[in-house]
Amino acid sequence: LQAYYYLLLINVKYPFNVELVLKVFELGRLPFLPNPADIIFSNLEGEEVPAPEKFVENEFTGLFLLNAGSMLCVWTMVLMYYGSLVLMRRCSTRLPKKFREFIKNQRKSMEWSGMIRTVISGFQELSIATFLQLNHLTFSSPAKAGSSVMAFIVLIGSVIFIFYCWNKIWNNENEQLEKKYGALIEEFKEDPAICRYFYIVLFFRRFGMALCLVVLQNNPFFQVITLILVNFFAWYITLLRNPYKNQAERIIKFVEELTYLIIHIMIRFLIDGQGYTNSTRNRIGWVILSCIGVSITIAIGIMMIQQVMGMRSEERRVGKECRSRWSPY
Known about the structure:
By secondary structure, the protein is an all-alpha fold. Helices cover 74% and strands 0% of the residues. It has helices at 2-5, 16-24, 37-40, 53-57, 64-67, 69-90, 97-135, 142-171, 174-180, 182-185, 198-215, 220-241, 247-272, 278-326. Helix 7 (97-135) crosses helix 8.
C-alpha cells in the first residue's frame, strides 16, 4: 500500500482521479498511530522545517520526528513487547512448562527475525523522513536539534544494517541463517545466488527511491528516469528470475512489479505531456488506476484461493481423523 502512496511524491501533476485513489493508500503509513516524540517535545506540530512542495501537499514536513512518528510508535511497541518477553522469561520458573517454552521461542524469534521484519516494513518511510530532514538541517530549537541528530543516526544505522545483512548472508550457512536470520532469506530461492540477496537489493532500491524523491524534486524528468533506473535491477530479478519460493507469492510479486513498471512509464508520459488535453491525461490516469486495480485484485484473489484450499485441506484432515477414530475396524 505504501508503495502506491509514495507515487504522489513524484513531482508530476496527476489527473484528479489518480490523485484521489493514491491518497487512499496513506493508510499504509499508519498515520493514526500516536507519535512517542510528542511526550519528549511539546508543540512538535508547531516546529516548521521546509520541505518540497509535493511533500507538503501530502502531509509531510521537513522534521524527521514528525514524519517518522508512526514508525517510532511501532518500534516502541516492538521493544516494549520484547522487554516484556525478557522479563517474563526471567520470572517464569513457576509458570507451566508449555508457557515457558512459548515465551522462550517468542523471545528468540524477536531477537533476530522479529527485529529484521520491523526494519524491513518501515525502511522506506524512515529513509524518506531522514532525507527530508538532512535536506534542511537545523539546530535552532531542542526539537529540531533532536530531529536532526535522529536523522543522522538513522542514516548511519541504515547503511550499517544493509551491509550487516549482506555479511550475514555471505558468511553464514543456510541452517544458521534459517535459525537466526530467517526473515532475510525464508521467502526466497537459493538458486541462482542473487535470489538469496534479494532483500539487500530491495533495501538499496528503497534507499535510492527515497533519495530520488527528496533530492530531485526540481527536475521531474530526471527524477522519473532515475527512479526507473533505481528500480530496474529489482524489476529484472523479479520479472526474469522470480526469486520467491512460494508459487502464489511469485505470481503476486510478478504482477505487482510489472504493473509498477508500467505505472512509471505512464508517469513519464505525463511529465512529457504537459500540453496534453484533459481527455488524454485522464486516459493515462485510467491506465495507472487499471494497473493498481489488477495488482490488488490478483493479490486478494490468490490469498482468498489459498484460504479456501487451506480450509478444505483442514476439513479433509479432520474428516479422516474422525473416520479413523470411530471406525469399528
